[in-house]
Amino acid sequence: MTGDYRIIDAYRCNISTCFDCRYCWKNNGCAIGDEMQEIYKYIQECDNILLTSPLYFSELTGKRLEIGSRLQTYFCARLFRKEEPITKSKKGAVILVGGGDGYIDTAYSTACTLLHHMNCYNIHDAVYSHNTNERSAVDDKKVLLGLHSILDFFTNNE
């Protein structure tokens, strides 16, 4: 893949969950001074956002949702301050993997909600692999085709 990119590892980053302090009801940004401040800057600049997550009980992981809770600042900008916090539209995509039974619908819907708050409304269809307890996602031909499709989607300027 060409171009600049940033990987945010939800399990290794220093990002706290939103605790509803309501700072963002009246102020731009977030009162919590952690790694999310850099991610806010990156969200402003980037062209594409890819969300990935294992499925736990048919939902995104708790750590992914904790980071997602910090997008509350964008929601509050629109609702309370009547501002558009991100002017640059982006493309988005979601990759999900699950070990057992379950469904992607709830997780994909949640991921799309997070993408919408980052001004991604042009979103690729979900790419997912189920039954990874029995078969590795790298052996799932449908996933490999989906990854190539996401790359084409992100690099196509339409």
From TrEMBL:
<dbReference type="InterPro" id="IPR051796">
    <property type="entry name" value="ISF_SsuE-like"/>
</dbReference>
<dbReference type="InterPro" id="IPR029039">
    <property type="entry name" value="Flavoprotein-like_sf"/>
</dbReference>
<protein>
    <submittedName>
        <fullName>Flavodoxin family protein</fullName>
    </submittedName>
</protein>
<keyword id="KW-0285">Flavoprotein</keyword>
<keyword id="KW-0288">FMN</keyword>
